[in-house]
Design goal:
globular, 9 helices, alpha/beta, six-stranded parallel β-sheet, single chain, four-stranded mixed β-sheet
């Protein structure tokens, strides 16, 4: 262990408490990691590759995305916070953000709820596909607050794998509804409990890793106590976690909260679920993908896959779409095939397919 709990990464202490165990591990090269994952020799959550420094172009595109999207972020975060405040009445709201993509949204929700005078708490906890949520972290939260006010926070949905993992993780724990209270900013696959929209849009914190997530790695599986993480000190000079939340908070202060509508259940939700499943099945058949885990739909997931996996090819609805500019740039840098797939992508504007290495 390299640090003592509690810790908040590069965020302010009152904005989040990470229920993770900081560790030091040897880094696994990306190519080797991909072979180990696909062979079944190791689970992805047992390894990390060194997160690369963002290029000047990457940082510039993040800055552009934040300039263009901060107003929308402020409005939608405020709408989500207001809806949660209405839903929970006098019950304290406990935000359990899923590391890493949920954490920036959780921090912004925590700040918005605090500005509304609402009692709320915010934790960053691990959930791992095929292995479930960090039970030790959940026990800590439940012991402090009970289950009545717990909502889980993620940045967006891709295929809905995290919703399915939440259902499996919580089905035998008392105090949780059958439909997990999963809050996301964008829900293109229709699997969240509460979202601000179903758009696949250029969410600024979706195209950056540790530098926009409190300078922590994705989580690492542990059978003994809290799941682990690595503190990414080598990226400290690029940290924009506070820049993101401060920029959004500044926009939020100018909003007339009373004029904003509450977030409503999407009437097209079941249609989105069916369409998402159809798109994934079509791509799996067309590109002979034997595991849908190799299909990463949505701008954020597609971009992250190119950054930290071994991608095979990238599909976009339109190569001229400014929201996929970073993805196209990264794909070109790696010599990947970029296919303009148009309406075949359904509600998604981009998809990355992971290369089969075995």
């Amino acid at each position: 262990m390299v640090n003592n709990l509690p810790f908040s990464g590069s965020y302010q202490a009152g904005d989040v408490e990470f229920l993770l165990k900081p560790v030091e591990i040897d880094m696994t090269p990306v190519d080797q990691k991909e072979q180990l994952i696909q062979s079944g020799a190791r689970h992805y959550s047992e390894m990390l590759s060194q997160e690369p420094e963002p290029t000047r172009w990457h940082l510039e595109l993040f800055s552009r995305a934040l300039d263009a999207g901060a107003g929308r972020l402020a409005k939608e975060v405020t709408m989500l916070a207001r809806t949660l405040a209405q839903q929970f009445g006098d019950t304290p709201i406990v935000l359990a953000s899923l590391v890493r993509a949920g954490v920036p949204l959780g921090v912004m929700l925590q700040q918005a709820l605090r500005a509304m005078g609402r009692e709320s708490y915010h934790y960053g906890i691990s959930i791992i596909r095929d292995r479930g949520i960090d039970q030790a972290a959940l026990e800590i939260i439940e012991a402090r607050h009970g289950t009545a006010g717990i909502v889980f926070v993620d940045g967006w949905t891709g295929k809905g794998a995290i919703t399915s993992e939440l259902i499996r993780s919580l089905e035998h724990r008392p105090g949780y509804p059958a439909q997990p209270r999963l809050v996301v900013l964008a829900d293109p696959c229709g699997r969240a409990w509460l979202s601000a929209s179903d758009d696949d849009w250029l969410i600024p914190f979706g195209i950056m890793g540790a530098p926009v997530s409190g300078l922590i790695s994705r989580s690492l599986w542990s059978e003994d106590g809290l799941h682990g993480c690595v503190q990414c000190d080598h990226l400290a000079q690029y940290d924009c976690s506070q820049q993101l939340v401060n920029t959004v908070a500044e926009y939020a202060r100018s909003l007339d909260i009373s004029a904003l509508p509450a977030c409503q259940q999407d009437p097209q939700q079941q249609q989105l679920v069916a369409q998402s499943e159809a798109v994934i099945a079509m791509l799996a058949a067309r590109y002979q993908v034997n595991s849908i885990n190799r299909i990463k739909p949505g701008i954020a997931e597609a971009t992250r896959a190119v950054l930290r996996r071994v991608p095979d090819q990238v599909l976009v609805r339109s190569v001229d779409d400014p929201d996929v500019a970073l993805l196209v740039y990264l794909a070109q840098q790696k010599g990947l095939t970029i296919t303009e797939a148009g309406a075949d992508l359904g509600q998604y504007r981009a998809v990355t397919i992971i290369k089969k290495v075995l």
